[in-house]
Each structure stands twice: as C-alpha cells, then as structure tokens.
Specification:
With 313 residues, the protein is of the alpha/beta class. Helices cover 28% and strands 27% of the residues. Bound molecules: flavin mononucleotide and adenosine-5'-diphosphate. Belongs to the ribF family.
C-alpha cells in the first residue's frame, strides 16, 4: 500500500494516471460500517481490474473551525493503526489529505473537479450513505450531479448492529463508558493501541504485581478508567495481562492517568520494547484502597478473573 500525502496548495498539479476505484471517508476506527464501504469498493476494483484507493484526512474536519480538547481531539485509530488496517483490507493507495481551511473552503463542485476527477482520476467513488465532502449540499445523493457522468457513484447503506447504526460516535461513547465488548463488536476486531514500555515508580514489584507502564500517543483515545483483561504483544509474542488505566488513587490524589499491565506467567525486563495492547473485557472500576494489603487482595482476585476469562475463550 502506498500513502500519498496531499496538501491543497502544494500539490495543485498532482495527477494520478491510472483510473481508480475510490472509497471516501474519514474512517475513524475503521469499524464494521467503514469496512462495508471499503469492501464494496474492493469488489468493484477487482471486477474492473483497477486499483483501490482510499481518500482520507489527517485530522478531524472540526479542528479547522473550533477549539477541541480532551477526547474530542483524540482518535479511535491514530494514523499508524488506521494505515495498518487499511493495508490489511487490501487498499492499494491512500490519499492522505491535509484538511485545512483552504481545502474545506472549496465548493462541492470544485472538490469533485479538483480532487475526484483531476487529481485522482476516479472511475468509481464509493462512500457511506451519510458521507459529506464539504458543506450541507455535499451529500451522496447529490454526488452524481457533480460527477456529471465522469465517474460512477456507489452509496453504501448503514451497517446495523442491535438495530442501531454502527458509528464512530457510538464506539467513542462505549469506550468512554467502559463497554469494551460492545466496542469490539462494532469494530469487528478487538480494540487495540500501541505504546512503549517506560519506568513507573517501581511499586509494582513490591506489591508482588510488577507492571509494564505503557507510554502512548496523546491523540489515542483510550477506554475509560478501570481494570481490564488484555492481551499484549511484545516482539512477536502475545501475553495475557490484567491492565489498570487510572490515577493509582491508593497512592495519592491527582496522579496522572497511567496505563499499567501485569502480565501472567511472565518475568522479563522489557523496558523500551514497543507493545500492542488488545482490550478484551472490563473487570471493574478503580478503587481508592485504604491500605496496600487491600489493593493486593483485590489484585489477587483480578488475577483469578483474568485467568478464568482466558480459560473460557
Ligand atoms: C490489575 C490491576 C489493578 C489495579 N487496581 C488499582 C486500583 O483499584 N486502585 C489503585 O489505586 N491502583 C490500582 N492498580 C495500580 C497499582 O496501584 C499500580 O500498578 C502500582 O501503583 C504500581 O505502580 P508502578 O508501576 O508505578 O510501580 C492496579 C494495577 C493492576 C495491575
Ligand atoms: N509479570 C510481569 N508483568 C509486567 N512486568 C514485569 C513482569 N515481570 C517482570 N516485569 C518487569 O518489571 C517491570 C515493572 O516493575 P515495577 O516494579 O512495576 O516497576 P516500574 O513500575 O517502575 O516500571 C516491567 O517493566 C518489566 O520489565
């Protein structure tokens, strides 16, 4: 898969020679609904013998017109994760457009002419039923009008789970309320993220539960504070683990939020390793314990729950 970064003013003369089948969308999460769009485009590309391209953007469009804080500015899938998943879906080219004020200020007709036709040589454009590519007049029902027979348009219907639309917003809400099973169902894979193992306060080994402390990208949206069953990939190996994401309240108020994972049947020095964490099940909320002994007793119990989880999968 080739990633081609496009800036509105720098790449004015960009032109792709081969006609393309293009799936268009922001695709945060690359959830089951997004996968339906991309798989539809993939099938058409195969039937026509053309490459499959995805048009996506480097950040949320809202960033151009409002101040964003907290989880609002974070992503279910950051750049690397999104690209990784797109590659696995069989995408040949990604046009990664810098979403700037000047890019968004184009009229829908200009976007279609400048981008879909002139730059990207669209043969077919596929997107979800609610996709917009500019202002309120830029919906999928009007795309054939702007296309004016220069490319075909395919509108993909909503993917429903439990009678509700699969959407990034629904996934974000479930992440924020710790409903990781629902998150994973909507994504069509376990929610995962990446990071690097750094030093903590060396308390873990004294508690009898050493933890890898994971430093992750600030733009990565994480599950809500709590204790979770996870799988952790270090090098090429997967390990079972119990994760704590929280402020380690037992050790004082207002600590920063950290991600720490005790790995089962593991005893190695792994500082500096890159890891991937797959989130599988929420065990409980964080507790501010009155003493270390109570925290240890609770972690003994968490370990039992974690082992049971893996016995039953
Ligand atoms: C499975 C698990 C559950 C935890 N639950 C809590 C908790 O409920 N309350 C809390 O204050 N800390 C909790 N912790 C965090 C420990 O306080 C933390 O791992 C310990 O302070 C080690 O810190 P260090 O890595 O900086 O040495 C938990 C840790 C793990 C691995
Ligand atoms: N079962 C285990 N789970 C997690 N880390 C382990 C385990 N066994 C050994 N380690 C090592 O111990 C380190 C964590 O020890 P800990 O006392 O929690 O110190 P710190 O929090 O300062 O890193 C890990 O980074 C890892 O290198």
């Amino acid at each position: 898969m080739e990633i081609i970064k496009i800036n509105h003013s720098i790449h004015e003369r960009f032109h792709f020679d081969t006609p393309l089948v293009i799936a268009m969308g922001f695709f945060d999460g690359v959830h089951l609904g997004h996968q339906k769009v991309i798989n539809t485009a993939k099938k058409i590309a195969e039937q026509k013998g053309l490459p499959l391209a995805v048009i996506t953007y480097d950040h949320k469009p809202e960033l151009v017109y409002k101040k964003m804080d907290g989880n609002d500015k974070r992503y279910i899938t950051i750049y690397r994760t999104k690209m990784n998943i797109l590659e696995h879906l069989g995408v040949d080219y990604v046009f990664y457009i810098n979403y700037s004020y000047s890019f968004q200020a184009q009229s829908p007709q200009n976007f279609v002419d400048n981008y879909l036709v002139n730059r990207f040589n669209a043969d077919t454009v596929v997107a979800g039923f609610d996709h917009t590519y500019g202002d309120k007049d830029a919906d999928m029902d009007r795309l054939p009008h702007y296309a004016d027979n220069r490319f075909s348009v395919v509108k993909v219907s909503a993917d429903l789970i439990d009678n509700k639309k699969v959407s990034s917003t629904r996934i974000r809400r479930n992440l924020e309320s710790g409903h990781i099973k629902t998150v994973n169902k909507l994504l069509g894979r376990p929610f995962y993220n990446e990071g690097v193992i750094v030093h903590g306060y060396a308390r873990g080994r004294e508690l009898g539960y050493p933890t890898i402390n994971i430093d992750y990208d600030g733009l990565q949206m994480m599950p809500s504070i709590g204790v979770y069953v996870t799988k952790v990939k270090i090098g090429n190996e997967w390990f079972e683990g119990m994760a704590s994401i929280g402020r380690n309240e037992t050790f004082g108020d207002n600590n920063p939020i950290t991600l720490e994972i005790n790995l089962l049947n593991f005893n190695r020095n792994v500082y500096g390793e890159n890891v991937q964490v797959k989130w599988l099940y929420k065990i409980r909320n964080q507790v501010k314990f009155t003493g270390i002994d109570n925290l240890i007793l609770q972690m003994d119990h968490d370990k039992m729950v974690t082992e049971k989880f893996f016995e039953n999968v």
